[in-house]
Specification:
Strand content of chain A: under 5%
Structural class of chain A: mainly alpha
Number of domains of chain B: 2
Structural class of chain B: alpha/beta
Shape of chain A: rod-shaped
Number of domains of chain A: 3
Oligomer: heterodimer
CATH superfamily of the largest domain in chain B: P-loop containing nucleotide triphosphate hydrolases
Number of strands of chain A: 2
CATH topology of the largest domain in chain B: Rossmann fold
Number of strands of chain B: 11
Shape of chain B: globular
Order of helices and strands of chain A: HHHHHHHHHHHHHHEHEH
Strand order of the largest sheet of chain B: 2-5-8-1-9
Amino acid sequence: MPTPTSTRWIDTLAQRVDRIRRAYNLCELQRSTYMLVAAALAGATLLLVTALFGSTRLFAAIAWSTLTAFVVTTVLLVRETNRRWLRPERAVAWIENRTALGGRLRSLIELHARGEHTGVHFFLPLLRNENERALPSWEPRDVVPRRIPWVALGIALVTTFTLFAVLTLTPVLHPRVPELAATAASSDAETHASARADLNADIDEDMDDDNARRSQLATIPAEIQERIRQSVWGRAWERVREAMLEEQRSRQRAASRAPHDEPGPDGDTERPWQLADRTRPGTQPRSRGRNEADPAPAQERAPRRALEQRNSPMDREGRSGAGTGAGAGSSTNPELYGAAAPPDLASHARFELGLVTRMRLQHRRGQPGEGNPPRSPDQRPLLTVSNRGEELAHEMAIPRAYEPIVRQVFAHRGVEGLE
Amino acid sequence: MTTDAGIAAAAIRDFRETFAAVRREVGKVVVGHERVLELILTAFFAGGHVLIEGVPGLGKTLIVRSLAQALGLSFNRVQFTVDLMPADITGTRIIDERANGKREYVFVPGPLFAHVVLADEINRATPKTQSALLEAMAEQQVTLAGTTHTLTPPFFVLATLNPIEMEGTYQLPEAELDRFLFKVRLASPSQEELERILATTTTAETPITEPVFDPETAPARVENLKRIVRQVLVAPHIERYVAGLIRLTAGTGTDAAGELDPEVARHVTYGASPRGGQALLLGAKVAALLDERPHVTYEDVDQFATAALGHRLVMSFAAGAAGVSADRIVDHVLNAARHLRT
């Protein structure tokens, strides 16, 4: 009569199934780990390259995109690993699918688990015998031939090597200061732009894109980018940055056409009549505290500085422009209306007062025939009716005799002593 | 190989050889219809009954008679007509006068009392007569006037249906349909098969089916083979799969997405009964033995799905209007049940 299936024999099968399951799961775990490492390293490489050679805006976009992509990749990898993970209840069926056992192993193990090995079954010994004969056909090394996921490992190694190469090469590839100086001195605009295109774009954004600085999303990447550059390039980056800032200021000075652009007596570059810098509390003013090079000769700077000290009451009181409120000037530009003409009190001629500032005009209260006639609509901006009263007046005809008085008044000096 | 395993392997080998021998003997007379013959023999060894549907002249009666001859079993043929009464097939009691002049009722067995019964054109009989078969088919016994008469095993009913002459016929009740293990359809023979039929049936010497078993021991041999079929191992994952199939045909099972199948729900009014699952497993067991395996696999189950489940589905009006057949639903269910193969 047929005998019940041996429990020890079933245990042997179960142990082999468990070995195969562990080997497969280890392989899957390796694959996911390698892919995760590869994704992280690829993202780090991209971030590093972008941080070193890209603009702040590009780095911010790449940083957030890379972070998002990494999170998504991690989630997908975890899901895929969970899906492919071989659980004990699925292990036998998985082995059956990969071998030519034809359901023998699964039937025997499941019937044993159900307790049918304790009874007498006509075909159970035959099933056990068939499994015994088929045992060599599903050795763990045959069922799980790959213990190491070479493709995933290769990808991880490639990304590691790439990051290593980037880390090795990037310190050498830092922008060079002499190159910048040379391009700054050159009058050739095309050469100037091509040599500093990437770095100037960065500086332009650092200096000009105030909205980006206000955004937290943009501030964090900018700080990270700066740290990365300092970490990778060190003092070389500091020198380059100084040179780029100097170049930027030179461009600004050239564009503003300001004849007296020298530092104040306390080293402050802001003139008393300039508007205070609109910086947020806690942030570093961009140009403050830095020693700007004044292109004017030293012999020209000294008289101007004395004139400013005499004409600026605030400066006489020892206050600097940095202490003024945001948006307010500390005094009036003495040459607000251009160079002074010699006074001619006897003359009835008029002089054109160049206001060069925003001024509210009130044409309606004036006498007919006084002042300039309204400009044609195509010469003035199309403003709304409410804004018409605040139209900019660039010049006004003033009797020549009043010129010294106007100048004194607008220079905040008072009218005492004038006849 | 141990002794027990050797005995089991020998039993499987004996079954395969017997099956092949019967198949070969029937094949001497019946040309073509390989799949139908295989299904009929499978149902026979599984202990079920078969409903054969086909137009006249395709050899339905010939198949059944040849099978009975090949098995060496007794054979009866009942031509179902509209005036056929239950007693005409189950048997009746008659008054018998003994030699001493004493009269008593004596049971005269009807044509059901045979090993193989051909119920020809079963749908021509009234439901009352058709239902007389129910007890015989399910319990292999006949109850008459309070007395139960057991049918001698093996008992195998082969009923035929003529699908084109529907006038004067009665639709088989679902309960009776459910008692047929398989329903098979006889297709028209191919060109080659038709040529062979013409060549073998119009000559002076027609082929004769030789019995595989000794008529004296045939019933016992057949019963022994049927017991072997029942011994085939069915693992729990196969039972889960079959149960899932049955639930899918009833519209209560869920597909891989965990949702009810809308096509089944729209086209099937009533799904297969648990008897359908039994039919699937029994057929699968025979298939496993024919494949020299002591256990059932998914493929064994699938190959009998249409024959075992098709006639058990009660199709809806929408299915009839859309021309959706039960076989198509079974195929659909098989595809939807792929996720159960885990």
